[in-house]
Amino acid sequence: MVEGKYKGQENGRTLLPPMPWQNFKNIKEEDLRAMYMYFKTF
Questions:
Q1: Domain of 13?
Q2: What is the sign, positive or negative, of the torsion defined by CA atoms of 6, 10, 14, 19?
Q3: In the chain, what percentage of residues exceed pLDDT 70?
Q4: Which tens digit of pLDDT belongs to each residue from 6-23?
Q5: What angle do CA 17, 21, 23 make, to 5 degrees?
Q6: Is pLDDT of 30 > 90?
Q7: What string of H, E and C letters represents the secondary structure of 1-42?
Q8: From residue 1, how far is each of 14, 20, 31, 36, 38 by CA, in Å?
Q9: Would you say residue 33 lies in a domain?
């Protein structure tokens, strides 16, 4: 999510719109984990 790569794979393709990964590239690991836990509640 922070590197804009498909499934975080180093050689993976870049994420395509509408995924705004550029907005998340500087997010803290703690905040990213909190978002993950929140999304799992759906």
A1: 6-39
A2: positive
A3: 67
A4: 666 677 777 666 667 777
A5: 115
A6: yes
A7: CCCCEHHHCCCCCECCCCCCHHHHCCCCHHHHHHHHHHHCCC
A8: 10, 9, 12, 11, 15
A9: yes
